[in-house]
Amino acid sequence: MNPDEVICFCQNVTSGMIKDAVDNGAATLEEVQKITGAGTVCGSCIDKVRQLVEQFAAERAASS
Predict the structure, then answer these.
(1) How far does CA 21 lie from the centroid of its chain?
(2) 3-class DSSP state for residue 28?
């Protein structure tokens, strides 16, 4: 996935920003929202943000 792909247009949050939040300890959608603001305005990206959080958390767990 392109780390520069914008996932949340309202807050201009990219996939890379979500990955960074997860790599730095965020483990839930809510924690990523608190750090990045993704999905906190219109909510249309919530499903995609949740999917990425789960994917990146699984990758982090597999590499540790």
Answers:
(1) 7
(2) coil
